[in-house]
Design brief:
The chain is mainly α and 278 residues long. The chain has two domains: 44 residues, no CATH class; 232 residues, MetI-like fold (Orthogonal Bundle), CATH 1.10.3720. It is 79% helix and 0% strand. The protein contains 13 helices and no strands. Helix 8 packs across helix 10 and helix 10 packs antiparallel against helix 13. The protein is globular, with a radius of gyration of 23 Å. It starts with a helix and ends with a helix. It is a multi-pass membrane protein.
Length: 278
């Protein structure tokens, strides 16, 4: 053990491993662990019956289903179209490519409230896009999915894009020279390389969508039991000074999100291990 630490110190270009590790743990504890622990501690002030009554209320359960369902749908759609956009930006040259590449990052810079107002204006029944549809888009779960696609797309594009840039075309040419079709080259050569990045992009987009509030609240309609997302319920309880109820519902979202992200990380670890072994 001592020999390993000495070797690590000797191989480190920038000194200060102990100091930086201590700062990292302190920073994570103060910024991440301490606030999250307060959510749990505040929830513990409720009795089990009160806790269950709060988190299992039909209105809350409906918001869980809506929030997780729309986040999952938006994440899956972003996986498909985000990968296609990353492929186009890496593999092709066309006029205005840098502008398109810059537009991908627009959801990062644009205030979420502005995005929500813009989307609600476009997809409302009298909007520029919504008027061409026979069914409502804004103020329905479809509108929520569109808003979540908007804010989650950059995560998939920016995680897949570097992998494509590092993927040599010589591998594809070698696959073609061995008689593989384009579909076989994609499924057997390209896709295994992209899969870990795609899973990472999906997990980031999914996690971002779960907690999204600003862009969704304007296009959702916010009708209880229909288009009311969980973050809105939390905000409503905070406005009513029901801090314990808000933290109880936040705890459900936190635990469920952590469990899902842990599952995604296990899947990602399995895929990395599987393709590395092969």
């Amino acid at each position: 053990m001592e020999l390993t630490l000495k070797k690590r110190k000797r191989n480190t270009i920038i000194p200060g491993f102990s100091l930086t590790l201590g700062y990292t743990m302190l920073y994570l504890s103060v910024i991440v662990l301490l606030p999250l622990s307060m959510v749990f501690f505040n929830t513990l002030s409720l009795s089990w019956s009160e806790l269950w009554e709060t988190i299992a209320h039909p209105r809350a359960v409906a918001s869980y289903k809506l929030s997780f369902g729309t986040a999952l749908a938006a994440g899956l759609i972003n996986v498909v179209f985000g990968t296609i956009i990353a492929w186009v930006l890496v593999r092709y040259q066309f006029p205005g490519k840098r502008i398109v590449d810059g537009l991908v990052d627009l959801p990062f810079a644009l205030p979420t409230a502005v995005a929500g107002i813009a989307l609600a204006t476009l997809y409302s029944p009298n909007g520029w896009i919504g008027q061409f549809f026979d069914f409502k888009i804004a103020f329905t779960p479809i509108g929520i999915v569109i808003a979540l696609i908007f804010i989650g797309l950059p995560f998939v594009v920016r995680t897949v894009q570097p992998v494509l840039q590092n993927l040599s075309r010589e591998i594809e040419e070698a696959s073609a020279s061995l008689g593989a079709t384009r579909l076989q080259t994609f499924t057997k050569v390209i896709f295994p390389e992209l899969l870990p990045a795609i899973i990472t992009g999906f997990s980031l987009a999914f996690a971002r969508s779960l907690g999204e509030y600003g862009s969704v609240v304007f296009i959702a309609g916010n009708m209880p039991m229909k288009t009311e997302i969980t973050p809105l319920i939390i905000m409503t309880k905070l406005e009513q000074y029901d801090y314990v109820g808000a933290t109880a519902i936040a705890t459900v979202m936190l635990v469920t999100s952590f469990a899902l992200l842990l599952l995604i990380n296990i899947i990602q670890w399995y895929t990395n291990r599987k393709f590395n072994v092969q």
